[in-house]
Amino acid sequence: QVQLVESGGRLVQAGDSLKLSCVASGRTFSSYTMGWFRQAPGKEREFVAAIPWDVSLYYADSVKGRFTISRDNAKNTVYLQMNNLKPEDTAVYYCAASRLRLPTTNYGYWGQGTQVTVSS
To answer: What are the strands of the beta sheet with 77-82, ordered from one edge?
Structure first.
């Protein structure tokens, strides 16, 4: 089992930057695909970004050019750098882990979420 803990969410203004972190408890962190998802009130959870164990990176069109996903395997941590935040980015952000290389689906482990609120 893998346990994930997100942190870094807070209230910011439109145009600000924010960096989220997610620490995993598993010993095989480097072999997992790690992803970020978000869910706004009244909406379904949506894919944001993913970073598998290889060099590929994946982003939703809505965040391309603004968000950057990265990982530090030595620290069992995945990050989401968010720049030029918009009010529509307001959501609970979740990190997730998968044993498969399917960047947008089939994540088996989820964190508790961290709230990001962007004021206009």
So the answer is: 4-7, 18-24, 77-82, 67-72
